[in-house]
Amino acid sequence: MTATDRRTDRRTALRERLTDIAAARMAADGLGALRARDLADEAGCALGAIYNVFDDLPALVLAVNARTFARLGAQVAAALAKAPADPVEQLVIMAQAYHGFASANRHLWRALFDVPRPAGQPAPDWYLADMARLFAYIADPLSALYPRMPMADRALLTRALFSSVHGIVLLGLDEASAGVPAAEIDRMIALVLRQIASAPDQPSVT
């Protein structure tokens, strides 16, 4: 192994170690509790070494978020694999799986949407790709429910449903704001989705 290979291996190992530590700290205390010096102390590296493998702390948070997205996608896919063929129930089961993940991983889930980013700077390509994969899970049942709806409208409806479920989960997990007991969130999600999906498939009017 060459010296260059050893340096690359050390950088990769440090990157993984820092990501592990950051993920554990974020899961326990939230994004706001992340401090570069604390990470360096726990990793046993110099403070500056963090910035040899990550451009800044938001880049480290994004590395954690990439793992979180993978776990979220896997949980939604696993729920969908056990779902019945009925597209409405597929939507309900996927949405409830989303709620389950958010409830069990509140800080990591919030960090998917709260990572600091300069105004006007787009989300990274991988983030958009991961979101597109989540949207695809929703889009497939909608295609079965609304085969006559124009594709562009279905794409908007897909995002609207995700936003609706996300908002219910976000407010529902803060019981003081929503006034909905946690045990009722899944029922609320099911009620909303079943009502929306019960609309007849009519051509869109613009």
Structure write-up:
This protein is mostly helical and 206 residues long. The chain folds into 2 domains: 1-54, Arc Repressor Mutant, subunit A (Orthogonal Bundle); 56-197, Orthogonal Bundle (Tetracycline Repressor, domain 2), CATH 1.10.357. It is built from 10 helices and no strands. α7 packs across α8. The longest helix is centred in the N-terminal third of the chain and has 27 residues, at 3-29. The chain is elongated and about 65 Å long. The relative contact order is 0.10.
Outline the biggest β-sheet. none
Count of structural domains:
2
Distance between the termini: 64 Å
List segments where confidence is low: pLDDT < 50 over at least 5 consecutive residues. none
User: What's the gyration radius in Å?
Assistant: 20 Å
Which descriptors would you attach to this protein?
206 residues; mainly alpha; Arc Repressor Mutant, subunit A; Tetracycline Repressor, domain 2; 75% helix; 0% strand; elongated
Task: Produce the secondary structure layout.
Blueprint: H1 3-29, H2 36-43, H3 47-53, H4 57-81, H5 87-104, H6 106-114, H7 125-145, H8 151-172, H9 175-178, H10 185-197
Helix pairs in contact: 1-2, 1-4, 1-6, 2-3, 4-5, 4-6, 4-7, 5-6, 5-7, 5-8, 5-10, 7-8, 8-10
